[in-house]
């Protein structure tokens, strides 16, 4: 759940930073936690381990979780896929992207449930899925992405927040960016609109072949719950 106090200067977005909120004229609001990419790195490591086994096939699980009440209660969603050994690097990336996209939508839908909506407005919050996608690309091809995103200053980001309101009020069920025109631009129509992804965030396509025997969905909508998970 992004808050106004989370907004930082672009210069504060360092490689090891795990929280914060910035505004990009290309991607809109970016949740730095979602954009970290550590989950994708772990997923690719699991795929690499599976490829090095001698079983012919291997199972891989990917999950997204949330915790409340000082981590006393946790919940989330996961998918499990069975993969045939021998995937190329491009195919591995494609599988990882599809697993992330499927799980992210399930997780955002979970957060939209009335059981959690009283606590958080994060379900399909306007920045979440786009930030997840940025995290994917940061994981598979490390680069200086902040320098390519036309980030605005903290002052200008705060101006957008104050003009349009919290990003959690705007829902985005897809991975295209939700953009908010500069309130100080008198020539702009001051309404949020869907933008386009930059080319460096479109070159991997999610895996969609489930008939060849290379990839099989074992669990397509798994649930995760924990209590007193410290």
- How many structural units, i.e. domains? 1
Instruction: Report helical residue fraction.
Output: 25-40%
The helix/strand order is: EEHEEHHHHEEE
Q: What is the 3D form? A: globular
% residues in beta strands: 15-25%
Task: Output the number of helix runs.
Answer: 5
**Main beta sheet strand tally, sense and closure:** 3 strands, antiparallel
User: Using only CA atoms, what is the Rg?
Assistant: 18 Å
Helix/strand-derived category reads alpha+beta
Let me know the average pLDDT.
Answer: 92
Strand order of the largest sheet: 3-4-7
Low-confidence stretches: none
General description of the model:
It is a single chain. With 230 residues, the protein is α+β, with helices and mostly antiparallel strands. The protein has one domain (4-8, 20-227). It has five helices and seven strands; from the N terminus they run ββαββααααβββ. The protein has helices at 38-51, 89-112, 114-117, 128-140, 154-164; strands at 21-24, 28-31, 57-68, 73-84, 178-179, 193-194, 215-227. The strands form three sheets. It has a three-stranded antiparallel sheet with strand order 3-4-7. Strands 1-2 form a two-stranded antiparallel ribbon. A two-stranded antiparallel ribbon has the order 5-6. β1 (21-24) and β2 form a beta hairpin. It is globular, with a radius of gyration of 18 Å.
